[in-house]
Amino acid sequence: MVGKTTRRYWDPLWLRKPVLFTFMALFIVLSVSLILLWHFANRYDGIPLALTTNHYAWTYGPTAVLTVVVSLWRQVNYCAMVSQPWQELHDGPQEAEKTVLLDYVWPLQMISFLKALRNRHLAVATSILILTLLKLVMVISTTLFVLGTRSLSQEIRVHRLTKFDAAKFLNALQREKYQLTKNVNWDYANMQQSYRNTTPPLAISTAFTNYSIDSEVPGSAITASVQVDVFQANVTCEIATVNLSPPDSSGWSYATLNTPSCKIRTRDIPEGNCTETRRYFLSTMSACQDTTNDYQHVILTVEISPPSSSTPTPHNPFSSICDAGVRRMAAISCDLEYSIYQGVVHGPALDTSRIDSLQVQEKKQGHIGNVTGWELLYARWNEIDPNVIALDSVSFTYAEDPDLLSLLVNSRTIKADTFDALLDAVSLQSRAEEVLAGVSHQVMRRYLLLPDDTETSGSINFTGQRLYIRTVVLWTMVGLLVAMSCLVAIVIAYTKPGVTPQSPATIASTAYVMSRSPAMDRLLRECSAMRLSGMRKVLANYHFLIAHDRVGMPRIEVIEVTRPEISPEPPSWLRRKWKSFRLRPTKQVVDAKEKGKRPWMPYSGRSHAITLTLILPTITIVALEVLWYLSENNEQFVTVSSDSNIATYAIRYGSTAVALLISTLFNSLDFAITSIAPFSALTAGDATAEHAMLFAVVGDLPPVALYKAILQMHIGVALSLVASTVGSLLTIAISGLWFDTTIEISRDVTVDVQSAWNINFDRESSVDNDTINYFDGLENGSPDEATLIWDNVVLPRIGNPQPSITSEFREILDDSTVQYDITVPAIRPSLDCSVLPPSSITFNESMIDGNALCYGEFNITAQLVAGCSSLSSAGASNYVRFALTTFAIPDEGKTWFGYLHDLPVIASSDGAPLEGCPSLGAVFGTYEYLNSQSKFDITPLICTQRLQWVEVNATYPGNLSSLFAPNLTTNLRLNSTPARSITDTQTGSSSLSMNISAPFERLEWIRLQDPFFDIFFEHLITGPSPEKLLGRENSDALRSAMNDLYQRFMVHVIDRQWRSSVGHGNVTPPNSNGRVARGTRTATVLRLKLSKASKILLQSLLSTMVVLGGLAWWCVDLRVLPRNPYPIASSMALFAGSRLIQGSSQNLRSMQGHQNIIKRKPLIVLKGKRFRLGWWKHLDAGARNGLESDSTSRTGSLKEDRRFGIDVEDTNEAGSSASVAPINILKRR
Fold it and tell me: pTM score, two decimals?
C-alpha cells in the first residue's frame, strides 16, 4: 500500500511573506525618517553636530544604511529569479523558453528585466526594478546632507566694567564750584564735526555701561548682545513769549519769558545800535518766579535793527533810542529729566568697543545718587559760558573753544546765515533739545561712569556648522522609497512559495531532480556538450511541467507538441526501430567536431571584461592621486558658487557612478567565480560531494558565503568574495570623497603708499587742541575712532593695487571676501629713558617757625652725553638740572609724587638735538617724614624721544576696486625686520625735542586726591599700581609704563598732525622704493575639495580589490562548461546518461513505499563518493533506451560512446561503462 502523498519543496527565506512585508515596512520607515529629519532640520535651523563635526559620519551614514539594504534585497532578487522557472513548471505545461531554458540570473539586469516583462513574470521584473531603484537611491544619498554655516547663539558671561555713579561728578562740582572743564563740549563738538551728515556711533553719542566678555568667544563669533544700563535724557524745551523792559540809564533792559508752565525773568540785554543791526545770544539758568527749586535753562536770541530797517512794535523798548527796534526774537525755556534704563546693546563680539544698535527696555532707576536734572543743567550752564554774546553784521565771532552757540549752529564760526536759524523759535527749540540732550550724554560718559566689577548676562551670535538636508534630494529619495514599498506588494502578490524541490544553488539538487525525471534524462542525453542555442532547437517542440510520483516526490515531465510548420526528427528513444540502432558519431568524429568549437566563457571572465575590471580601478587610483594634487593646488580646481549647483551634483554623482560601475564589475566577476567554482573543482577530478556537489554560496550573505568557502578550501572563491565585499564599500567611501570648504586664493600684489610724514623735530613743535581733547576723551573711556593706529604703531594709507583683478578672478569673488595682506612701513614712537644715579638727587628742606619741617624740594642734576648741552641763565653746560615742585611736607604718612619736565637741551643753532640728546626729565617716588627724619625713595630719569620705522604685516579688507582701513583687531603683527630710527633730513638727528609735559597739563585731572602728581603721572598710575613702579628695583617697570603712555599719546599726534600727502613729507622712506608696498590679495571662495582620508581609503579598497580579484580569477578556471549552467535543462544535461543518475533511480525505486526513508535527504547517497566533470564512456543508444535486443543479432554489438558531464568515480568497477582517463577539451586560459 502506498502511503499518503507528501510534497517536499524548498521555501526560501527571502521570499517568505513576513520577510517581504518587513522590506515594505523598512522602506516606509526610511521614508518617514527622512521626512522627520527634514522637519527637524527646518525647525531647529539645521541638525547640530553634537556627536562629531567630522563630515565622514554624516556622509557615510545614509550610504552605509542603503548599502546594507541593497545587499539584503539582492538576496530577494536572486531567489525570485531562480524560483521563476520552477513556478512556470508548476503552472505548466510550458514551453522550454519559459521553463527549463529560462534564465534570469546570468544575463544583464536590463536584459532580464525586459525578458521578465515580455514573459509577464512580474515578480522578477519588480524585484529587478526595486534593486535598480535602491542603487539609484544609494547614489542620490551621497548628496543628501550638506554642511552649512549658519548664525547660532549661546549665553555668555559678561564682566561689567563701568557703572553709573555720582561720586566723581559731585567731587568735580565741589572742587570747581560747579564749573566743569571744556572737555564735555569738545567731546560733543568733535562728534558733530566728524558725523556732520551721518548718525554718530552709539558708543560715543550715548551713555551706557561698558563691558567685556569673560566667556571663551568662538573665532566665528559675529555679534554680542549684552544687558547694560543706559542713560536716557528727556530734554523738553517750550517756546516762550518775551516781554522786554525799557532800557535803564545804562542802556540795558531785561526780558521776561512766559511759557505754559513757567514765568522767568532773564538777565539784562544791552541796547541796540543806531547804525547797524546787532544780534544777541543769551543762555542762562533761571528759576521760575513762582518757585525757587524749578530751574529752567533759558535761551534767547534777539536781532535789533536801526530805524531804517526796523518795524515799530508795541513791545519795542528801544524806540526811544534813535528809534532802534527788535526785528526778530526767539526764546525757549528748557528742562531736563533723566532716568537709567535697562537695555541691550548689540555689537561685534570680538570688538566690544563698537556698538551697532541699542535696544532700551524697562526703567531701572530714576536719578543717580542725589544728582538731579537741575544739577546737570546747572553744571552744563557753567560749561557753556552763559554770557550775553553780541554779534555784529560784519565780522561776527569765532569760538576758540566750543560754547553753546557754536554747538547750536554746528560751527565754531558764527555767521549771519548760520545764526538766522536760531531766530526762528521752532528751529531753536529742536536744535536746543538735540544739543542739550547730546551734551548731557557726554557729561554722563565723562563724569558719571566709574569703574565696576560685576557680572551681567549676555549672548553671542556666531557662525557655526549645522547639518542641512537638500530638499530636492530628500523628496526624490522619499518618492523612490515610497514607490519601492508599493512595488514590494507586487512581488508579494506574484511570488509563490515552495515551488522548487530543493535549493537550485547546488549541483546535487539538479542531480536529485534529474534522477527522478527519466524523461528529461532521455531527452537531454544528446545535449551534454551542446551550446544553449543547440538545446533550444532540440527542446523547441516540447513542453515541460512538474509532476509527482506515487509518494509525492516531484519530477519533470516532457510533453511533445507537434507543430505543423516544424517537423523535426524525434529522438531515438521516441522512435521504434526494428532490430537496428542509430549509430552515434565515433570518437574521432566527436573530437573533430569539438576541435573547432570555442569553449564557453562567462562574460565577466573574458579577456576584455577582466581587463576592464582590473584596469578601471587602477586608473581610478591614479586619477584620485591627480585630483588630490589639483585639490591641494587651490587655484587649479573647481570653484562652485553654491553647494547645490550643477557642478557639485555632477562631480558627486559622477564619482559615485564610477564607484558603482567598479563595484558592479567585481560583483559580476564574483558571481561568475562562485557559480563556476564547483564545476571547476569537478574538472580537477576526485572531488568530494561537500567540496563540489553540495557547495553553493551564490545565494548566501557574504559572511556566510566566506565561511563556507574557507571551510571547503575554495581559495579563489574566498578571495573573490572578499573583493566583491570590499567593492560594496566603495559607494560608502566615495560618499565622503568630496566636501565643500572655504579656502583662500592668493595673488601677489603691490600697492601705493599714499601717506607721507611731515615731522617737526624741534622744540617749537606743538600739539593742537583737537588732538589733546581727542586723547583726553580716549583716556576717559571714549572709543578710539582712529583707523590707522594699531597698538603703538601708526600705519600709512595705501591704495591703487596692482595688478588689477582680472575678469576670471572677479567672477568667483565676492566683494566682502577680498582682503589685502600688505607689509607696510609704519612709524612707532619710543621713549628711551635711563635711570640717574642717587648722587644726582639733592633734597632741600625749608624751615618755618623754628624747628618745624614744612616744605621740601628735590633737585636733579644729570650729566649729558658728549655733543649735548643745556641752555640756562649761566650759559651752555653739559649738565642739565630740573627740580620737583616745592611740596608741603605732611606731619605723618607717605607722600607720593611724580613729575615730568621738558628739559632745556640744545645741540645746534636751529634747536634740533643731536643723536641721543635727552629732552625729558622725570621724577617718581615717595617721601616720608618719620621720627623727625626725612626718608625718600625716588627714581630720577632722563628720556630721549625717538621715532622708528617698523614693518607691519597688516590686513586691509576691501572690495574689487578700492581699499579700506586695516582690520585693527586681528591679523596685525610686526615682522622680523629690525626697527630703524627716523632722522631729520636737515640735521641728521633722530631725537625729538618736542615738549610733552605742556600738552599733558591741558588734559583733565583724573585723581583729584593726589596733588603731588602732575597730569602725566596721573594718567600713568591709573594703569599699574604705584607700588609696582616704586624703587630702583622696579625701574624697568616704570620706564615701560612711561614709554607706554608716551606711545599712546604720540601715535595720535603723528596720525592727526604729522600725516601729509605724498610729496610733502620731510623724512626719507625706509627703503629705496618707499612709496610701494608689497603683499598678497586674498579672496575667500567656496571650493569643492577632495578629502584626503577618503582618498586614501578608496585607494586602499581599490588596490585590495584589484589584487584579490586578479588572484581569484587566476585560481578558478572559468572555461570548464560548454554553456551557461543556470537554465534547468543546461545543468540537467550534465547528468543525462550518467551512472550517478541510473544508480540513484534504482535506489529510489527500491525505497518506494518507505516514506520514513524518503523524507530523509535524498542526496545522502552522495556522501563519501568522488565526482568528476569531463568525458565519460556509456552504452550505445539501444542500451540507453532500455530496449531488449535480439541475442543473435545483437551479440557483440555494444559500442563504446562518449558523453560530457558529471559522474561518480568508482575505481572498484571496470568495463565499458567505466570512466576513461579525464579528457579536458576546454583548455585553460
Answer: 0.61
